[in-house]
Design goal:
Shape: elongated
Distance between the termini: 93 Å
Structural class: alpha+beta
Radius of gyration: 41 Å
Strand order of the largest sheet: 30-33-34-38-37-36-35
Strand content: 25-35%
Number of strands: 42
Number of helices: 20
């Protein structure tokens, strides 16, 4: 949104300069982006007159001019074809910065003749006009007149409008806030109704009140269109708008002046005498959507969700309501009779129309944010006044169809809340004065009753009023109170889960995994591959089409991340992520997981194939669980019960009983990897952090011995024959649990199948490490412990191999 300082003074009686206005806007909450002051840029330039012009002695296309300037008579070399004696133009002295060229003038010879300045064209001064030669000004201008005064240049303020303040899209709304802030006195002229002399021959019918609840207009006949007066051209061009003709320029002026978009139809181009407001239509026989050639010359396809203005009993579209008019009824210099439209359109419909058609206009920008509902008829009256002044004509009576939305309702407000929420010490009179200056109606009963104005539908409760008061009083006046001394700093602010997340992140990074941070969403079809995809977890407004469902697992995102790495030449990936998953839409349906994934792509080596990556993954997993304080010695390893996305023969789960499944790990199913465009093999694990019990005793530290024993450890080897289907891990846990004080480790060092072992069985060789603590073990104690180990294995159906 842009406006000039002189435009602001039409509504605000103030002597503040542009810098003070920008500062006051910033303090009132308006985000000033830029202040362009052409007066300062044109300060070095002034009017000059060429006394004589002679051909340059060393160049046919250059002239040596004697110029009368504000600095006296100067000799200036000029290459413009129109440089001649008696011409009044603009002079730039040595040291001036020429904005159109981006250079600073220095004194230097031009083909042997020193030029003591420069005579300027319109383009060199960034002004509109012909640039084939230097500027040609009127002879009535005095030498030395500042260039800024010649061009009527004035400062322009550009600021960003927040979506909740559509009233700031008009200069009158900005002036109102600045007046409330004390920068001046509001003097916005009141809009006086213009009496109509006949009934409007053009009527309005609303067939879609949900899209456009109210539509007002009037006929003005006998207008004379044409180029706008100079003051109107300059005002629009100063803010970057192109002057078109008087009728169009008037609507643009009111749109920026009062935040009230309007449109003018050429009645001679209407078919029939009625304007119909309806939804877009689709042909019943062909299913084809109707089209509109808009004023920008482009053709747009209209669908039933859009608001259409049509004539001929609703048959021909002549405009997109609240967005842009149609080319077929646009005004030209030949226009004589016009119909002025002022309506109110539903903001959500207009915003969606703009997004669907990729079309943004000044009207669409304002209607999408919410135009003042009470400005419909006043907008017609103001447009009528300006049209009669600039174009002449005779107005009809105003015709209104429909009914405007209800104005905001009053609500209770306690002025003491200003102090309790902001700390400002303001009197009730000051609070009331601020609210009244902003357009609120204040009834100072007990409690106060405050009614927002029709242009402030963003104010819905007492907290909004407190913000308004603090904004106008000045955020710089908020009291600065230091926080109370809390004594010694806190020794820790992380809860046990947060501490575990930090510990897991560091542990996995130390193992060589790289952390990935992905979305908590995925595609619904992908979620279905991992047991999710329920309709209750589908997003209503996803940020992307392939991120429309809450993820049931962190694995699909990690798989896709690894696939992207592989596609870019980094196939050997090791990734992890710690984050939420969503099992259902209930509050307790969210879980925190630690997921890890490896895509083993080891380089070929003469030594043969490396160790199976699945065992390495399991080792990392157990080490991580130990770091988290999980009871790894008590975990049960279960195979064959994992879900569909795991490889049935190379996956398992770790659990504490059948109901507390802590971990699923193993190879991912090739079918799932193919669906995600990833190459097998990929191995992964997923720890449900909520299912990992907190360790007893010390805070979340890895369990271990209190200190090193001074006694030497010793080992004993055992070979047990067990059924092939029996999990080796169960045997290891059973042996380790015989005497947790003495047995420090149990390691599998051989698994044998073959001669001497019956078919369907295997021989598992274990190395049991014993660590004495208080005294060296005797032979009897060792033999007793050996017998207990054999007994524990026997309970699992294992027999000691002879």
């Amino acid at each position: 949104m842009k406006f000039t300082l002189s435009w602001l003074t039409d509504h605000l009686d103030t002597g503040a300069d542009v810098s003070a206005v920008a500062d006051a806007m910033t303090m009132a909450g308006l985000e000033v982006e830029d202040v362009h002051d052409p007066v300062a840029a044109l300060a070095p330039f002034s009017v000059a007159k060429i006394i004589s012009a002679e051909r340059h002695p060393n160049a046919d296309r250059l002239q040596v001019c004697q110029v009368e300037t504000v600095d006296g008579l100067k000799e200036i070399v000029c290459g413009a074809p129109n440089a001649r004696a008696g011409l009044t133009t603009i002079y730039a002295p040595i040291g001036a910065y020429v904005p159109g060229l981006g250079v600073t003038l220095v004194e230097k010879p031009v083909r042997g003749v020193v030029s003591n300045g420069m005579l300027c064209s319109a383009a060199e001064l960034e002004q509109p006009g012909e640039s084939d030669g230097i500027l040609e000004l009127g002879d009535d201008l005095q030498v030395g007149t500042p260039a800024a005064g010649v061009f009527g240049a004035e400062p322009v303020i550009d600021f960003e409008v927040t979506p909740n303040r559509p009233d700031w899209l008009g200069v009158a709304g900005i002036a109102r806030d600045l007046a409330a802030a004390g920068l001046g006195v509001l003097k916005t002229p009141a809009i006086e109704p213009v009496a109509g002399s006949f009934a409007s021959p053009v009527t309005v019918r609303i067939d879609a009140p949900e899209l456009c609840p109210v539509f007002a207009g009037r006929t003005i006949r006998g207008v004379k269109n044409g180029p706008s007066p100079e003051w109107l051209k300059r005002r629009l061009e100063a803010i970057g708008l192109r002057s078109i003709n008087r009728l169009v320029d008037i609507t643009n002026l009111i749109s920026y002046d009062r935040a009230r978009p309007l449109h003018v139809y050429d009645i001679a181009k209407l078919s029939g005498d009625q304007i119909v407001v309806r939804a877009g239509q689709v042909a019943k026989d062909t299913g084809e959507h109707e089209h509109l050639i808009a004023l920008d010359g482009k053709t747009y396809t209209v669908d039933p969700s859009m608001c259409v203005i049509s004539d001929a009993a609703g048959e021909r579209p002549i405009g997109l309501g609240g967005v842009m008019g149609g080319e077929s009824t646009g005004c030209s210099d030949e226009t004589v009779d016009v119909f002025v439209e002022s309506a109110w359109f539903d903001p959500i419909v207009i915003a969606q129309t703009g997004r669907t058609l990729a079309l943004t206009s000044d009207a669409q920008y304002r209607f999408a944010r919410g135009v003042d509902t009470a400005s419909v008829v006043p907008g017609v009256e103001l447009a009528t006044k300006l049209i009669l002044e600039l174009c002449g004509g005779e107005p009809s009576e105003v015709t209104v169809a429909g009914q405007a939305p209800a104005v905001p309702t009053a609500f209770a407000f306690d002025p003491a809340r200003v102090g309790s929420l902001t700390g400002l010490s303001l009197t009730d009179d000051r609070i009331a004065d601020i609210l009244i200056a902003l357009g609120f109606t204040v009834d100072r009963a007990s409690p106060w009753s405050v009614t927002p104005p029709s242009w402030r539908r963003d104010v819905e409760g007492p907290a909004d009023l407190v913000e308004e008061v603090a904004r106008i009083e000045g955020f710089d006046k908020l009291p600065t109170t230091p926080l109370p001394d809390q004594g010694a700093p806190s020794k820790g602010v992380l809860n046990p889960r947060q501490a575990r997340v930090r510990l897991a992140r560091r542990a996995l990074a130390a193992m060589g995994y790289a952390e990935a941070v992905t979305w908590s969403f995925t595609k619904q079809s992908i979620a279905a591959l991992f047991g999710g995809g329920d309709e209750k977890l589908v997003l209503e407004n996803p940020i992307a089409a392939d991120l429309d469902c809450m993820r049931p697992s962190a694995l699909p995102n990690l798989i896709q991340a690894a696939a992207r790495n592989a596609a870019r030449g980094h196939a050997d990936a090791a990734l992890f992520e710690i984050g939420p998953i969503y099992l259902d839409d209930q509050p307790n349906g969210q879980r925190t997981v630690i997921a890890g994934l490896v895509a083993p792509r080891a380089a070929r080596h003469w030594g043969g194939a490396p160790e199976d990556a699945l065992f390495a993954l399991k080792g990392d997993l157990i080490a991580l669980l130990d770091q988290l304080g999980a009871p790894t010695a008590s975990l049960q390893l279960v195979q064959g019960q994992n879900r569909d996305w795991w490889h049935p023969g190379r996956s398992a789960r770790l659990q504490l009983g059948p109901k507390n499944v802590m971990v699923e790990f193993g190879a991912l199913h090739p079918r799932v990897l193919k669906a995600l465009d990833a190459d097998a093999p990929m191995l992964a694990f997923e720890i449900v952090l909520d299912a990992v019990p907190e360790p007893r005793g010390a805070k979340s530290k890895a369990r271990g011995k209190a200190g090193l024993s001074t006694l030497m450890p010793l080992t004993r080897d055992f070979a047990f024959v067990v059924e092939e289907a029996k999990a080796t891990g169960d045997l290891v846990r059973a042996v380790a649990g015989v005497d947790k004080a003495l047995i420090s480790d149990v390691r599998v060092f051989d698994v044998y199948r073959g001669k001497g072992v019956d078919e369907g069985f295997k021989s598992v060789a274990l190395e049991v490490e014993l660590q004495p603590v208080e005294a060296t073990l005797t032979d009897a104690e060792i033999e007793a412990l050996t017998a207990r180990v054999v007994a524990a294995a026997t309970k699992l159906g294992a027999t000691l191999r002879s």
